[in-house]
Every structure is written in C-alpha cells, then in structure tokens.
Amino acid sequence: MEQTEIEQQLIELIKPLLDKPTPVSADTDLVHEVGLPSLKVMELIVEVEDTYDISYPLNQLQDVRTVKDLAQSVQQLMS
C-alpha cells in the first residue's frame, strides 16, 4: 500500500475525532494544529490498529507529529 493512500485513509479516520471541522492534510500537526487530546490519540491508534491489522507500539508515538509521520510508521509496521 502506498504512503499517500495510507495518508488519505488516516485523514478519514481522524476527521470523526475532531471537535470542530478542521482541514486535515498529510502535513497537519496532530497535536498543535488539530488539538487531539491524548484520549482521542488513543482512539485513533485503536482505529489504526483495527484498520491495518497491526499492533502499534505506543513508544513510537513520541516520533509522530504529522499525519505523514503516522502514515510512514504504519507503512513500516505493515512491511
């Protein structure tokens, strides 16, 4: 699966978690721009694990700032 395809799927997973409609792109910062609180981040990780049938190591979250970062780590876990 291509990274851009994963990015688009992740954007669709993120949108329902937002408190208010906010534009989300591959370069969107998940904490500073979108303001996802930790509980919503955990909901997102559960959705990611279910969608891609992977186990996402929580220690990798510290390296994830943007949707693109998350897509890269998901792609690596799928390989």
Word description of this protein:
The protein has 79 residues and is mostly helical. It has a single domain, classed as Non-ribosomal Peptide Synthetase Peptidyl Carrier Protein, Chain A. Helix content is 49%, strand content 0%. It has three helices and no strands.
Secondary-structure-based class equals mainly alpha
Share of helix, binned: 40-55%
What is the general shape? globular
Q: How many strand elements?
A: 0
**Low-pLDDT segments:** none
Count of discrete domains: 1
Write the CATH architecture name. Answer: Orthogonal Bundle
CATH topology: Non-ribosomal Peptide Synthetase Peptidyl Carrier Protein, Chain A
Distance between the termini: 9 Å
Percentage of residues in strands: under 5%
Element string (H = helix, E = strand): HHH
Q: Mean of residue pLDDT?
A: 93
Rg from alpha-carbon coordinates: 11 Å
CATH class value: Mainly Alpha
Q: What is the CATH superfamily?
A: ACP-like
Q: Note the total helix count.
A: 3
Largest sheet features: none
Briefly characterize the structure.
By secondary structure, the chain is mainly alpha-helical. The protein is built from 3 helices and no strands. It has a single domain, classed as Non-ribosomal Peptide Synthetase Peptidyl Carrier Protein, Chain A, CATH 1.10.1200.
